[in-house]
Design a protein that fits this description.
Layout (H helix, E strand, L loop, with lengths): L2 H18 L4 H20 L1 H7 L6 H12 L5 H11 L6 H22 L3 H16 L2 H8 L5 H12 L5 H11 L7 H15 L2 E8 L5 H15 L2 E8 L7 E5 L2 E4 L2 H13 L2
Parallel strand pairs: 1-2
Antiparallel strand pairs: 1-3, 3-4
Helix pairs in contact: 1-5, 1-6, 2-6, 3-6, 4-5, 6-10, 6-11, 7-10, 7-11, 9-10, 10-11
Organism: Micromonospora polyrhachis
Membrane topology: Peripheral membrane protein
InterPro entries: ATPase_OSCP/dsu (IPR000711)
Length: 273
């Protein structure tokens, strides 16, 4: 987001956090649904999106426009958050849409957090991403933006029925719609990171040739936490093709100590002689 949009989102987020600190999980889930529904509306209605982000219109007018549209259709908390956002300054209409969707996701994560389920939701999102990436047919179906979203959402609900928290299922549906304009896999990755961030943790994506033991994973997490000054949650992917060693990605930092990388480095060095 550009500077003006970041400031407007920060104001809405501050108001949201004040509410979320004492709200019940069900209330937060309802607010999340309202925010995500309005984000979907903004995605379908470019004229409304432009009107609500129009810098030539006073913020009060824009807030009033959205308030009248939503009157009696969403809860008081959601309406207050949405009119706060509508009254802000947005660099582009698309950034208003992005911010509304992001706040809806934050409300879902806060709901899971208040219910004591956020760690499980984070793990379920990651495991579902692994399941999809390991099945080319399923990956192709879920990533197909031409297929009706409702059809793909129904498939994920069937796959996750009885196996995942309601918040996880809803977040997967958000990912199917392309959270923040990302691909399905990119959306899942970002949602995992947001879940970890709400728990004040960093995510480390670790690729290994064979699974780490619980003790090895714990020791690796402790070393990374010491390095980054923050608790780290380790997400393992097993890939025998790396032959041995491991690679670790934390944000934009990549530490590749795999046997495959060393072999490739040796091969490249020999080829230059």
């Amino acid at each position: 987001m550009q500077a003006a949009s970041r400031e407007s989102y920060a104001a809405a987020y501050e108001r949201f956090e004040a509410y979320a600190g004492s709200a019940e999980p069900a209330s937060l889930a309802d607010t999340a649904e309202a925010l995500l529904s309005v984000a979907a509306l903004l995605g379908r209605e470019p004229r409304l999106r432009r009107a609500l982000a129009d810098p030539a219109r006073p913020g009060e007018d824009r807030a009033g426009l959205l308030g009248n549209l939503l009157a009696g259709k969403v809860g008081a908390e959601a309406q207050e958050l949405l009119t706060t956002m509508a009254s802000g300054r947005w660099s582009t209409p698309s950034e208003l849409l992005e911010a509304t969707e992001r706040l809806g996701v934050e409300a879902l994560l806060a709901s899971a957090d208040r219910a004591g389920d956020l760690g499980e939701v984070e793990d379920e999102l990651f495991r579902f991403g692994q399941l999809v990436s390991g099945d080319p047919g399923l990956s192709s179906v879920l990533a197909d933006s031409i297929a009706p979203p409702a059809q793909r959402a129904e498939l994920t609900r069937t796959l996750l029925a009885g196996k995942a928290k309601p918040a996880t299922v809803r977040l997967v549906e958000v990912a199917l719609a392309g959270f923040g304009g990302r691909s399905f896999s990119g959306s899942l990755t970002r949602l995992v990171e947001l879940a970890a961030d709400r728990r004040d943790r960093q995510v480390a994506y670790v690729t290994v040739a064979a699974p780490l033991s619980e003790d090895e994973e714990r020791r690796l997490g402790a070393k990374l936490a010491e390095l980054y000054g923050r608790e780290v949650t380790v997400k393992q992917t097993v890939n025998p093709e790396i032959l041995g060693g491991l690679s670790v990605q934390v944000g934009s930092d990549l530490y590749d100590g795999t046997v495959l990388r060393r072999l490739n480095d040796t091969r490249n060095a020999l080829a230059k002689r």
